[in-house]
TrEMBL record:
Keyword tags: DNA-binding, Phosphoprotein, Transcription, Transcription regulation, Two-component regulatory system
Gene Ontology CC annotations of this record: cytosol; protein-DNA complex
Response regulatory domain boundaries: 4-116
Keyword Plastid annotated: no
Modified residues (4-aspartylphosphate): D53
Residues of the DNA-binding region: 123-218
Transmembrane intervals: none
CDD domains: REC_OmpR (cd17574), trans_reg_C (cd00383)
Protein name (Swiss-Prot/TrEMBL): Stage 0 sporulation protein A homolog
Described purpose of this protein according to its UniProt entry: May play the central regulatory role in sporulation. It may be an element of the effector pathway responsible for the activation of sporulation genes in response to nutritional stress. Spo0A may act in concert with spo0H (a sigma factor) to control the expression of some genes that are critical to the sporulation process.
PANTHER family found in the cross-reference section: PHOSPHATE REGULON TRANSCRIPTIONAL REGULATORY PROTEIN PHOB, REGULATOR OF RPOS
UniProt KW Transcription keyword: yes
One GO MF term attached to the UniProt entry: transcription cis-regulatory region binding
Amino acid sequence: MMANILVVEDETAIADLILMNLRLVGHNGLHVSDGNEVMVNIEEQRPDLIILDVMLPGRDGFELMKEIGPLGIPVIFLTAKEELADKITGLKLGADDYMVKPFATIELLTRIETVLKRYKASGHGFELDNLEVRFDEHLVLLNNEQVELTTKEFMLLEILIRNKNIALSRDKLLELVWGFDYMGETRTIDVHVQKLRKKLHLEDRIKTVFKVGYRLEVPR
């Protein structure tokens, strides 16, 4: 399966090697070397998988993982750190795998395929009541009829789905959908939530959490 893979790595030689091998096996490789540019790139490109170095200029991989995790994008940490505590930290933050430099390229490619297959098998879709969401196709169906959502509405819906039954603050939602440097007000979230409720008949599903934010309630 061809995938868009974001390589977050500040060592040019290593990044070039990974990108070359990704293209050889049919993937589309994208590269970012500065931790401060990662979240903006993710918002613009919406990669299928992220290879994330821990030691980066700007923001490190562990810090970034706290923001990437709720987005539901699989992550493979790639780092020179061999300490067990670092591996545990990465996995606890939600990474799908962890590789230590130096590494064999064939092993990295194999792990990428394994994670992609597992992620694909876990479902890129969501169904609730009469609503169906197909993440890969960026498609939303209500009673089998397509509903048009803006890019931000779809991103907000996906984050609520990925974090179903979890209360997310307005600030966190604003950060995840609009970016950590967005200067707008949290009122933006309220407006978009109201639109989602109306368009998708989710008035009884997207709950307002008093003095916090919102939670998508689904049967456990």
